[in-house]
Structures are given as structure tokens and as C-alpha cells.
Design brief:
Layout: E1 15-27, E2 31-42, E3 49-61, E4 67-81, E5 86-92, E6 99-105, E7 110-114
Antiparallel strand pairs: 1-2, 2-5, 3-4, 3-6, 6-7
Length: 117
Amino acid sequence: PTPKPTTPASNGKALSVEILEKATIRKYLIFKKLEVTVRVTNDSATETLDGEVKVEFHKLKGILTKEDAIVETLTAPVSGLAPGESTDVVLTSTVSAEDAEATVNTILASSSASTFE
């Protein structure tokens, strides 16, 4: 049989991340907080893993030329995730934001997801 190629994020020894939901919480007319629900899954077949989820909140800035800027970065710990187990993490920006990008890091590898379309 031909061996299948693997990537560092899917080598079976890492946490993977996906963004399940992005919700806008309006406060006043122009201030929009962003609430992001992130699912972290332990892809390891045998190891219990710990890691950290980092979510970067983005917003377009500028009057004439719009540039994407990171307006806030929040982190949350993920600990003791058993093999094949998933956990959901909800993070809400404290500043106005439009999109988010999530990354989960372990000692072995990292995985990321984004709400950019």
C-alpha cells in the first residue's frame, strides 16, 4: 500500500480548531462586539493534550483605503483534552470587530481557522 502524506496539523498528535459560529453583538449604532465559538478537538489517538486557543479579532480601518487590522487578541487555555474529545470555547471581543481568526497551539503543532470570506 502507498503511504498517505501527512501535514504537521493532522499528524494525529495535535489539537485542531474550527470556528463554529460568529455572532455580532450590537451596542449602540456603530459599536459591534464579535462573539466567536471555537471548537478544539484532540486529534491524537493516544495522548491527552493541553494547549491554548488564540483568537485575533479584525476590523477594516481607514476612510479612503480600507486596511485589515488586528484590534484585539484574546486567549483561553485548553487542558486535559482526552484523545478524540472536543471542547467549545466562546470568546467575545471587548472592542468593535468584524472578523476573527483562531489558532490553537500545543507543544507539538498548531492549527488555525478563520471567519474571513
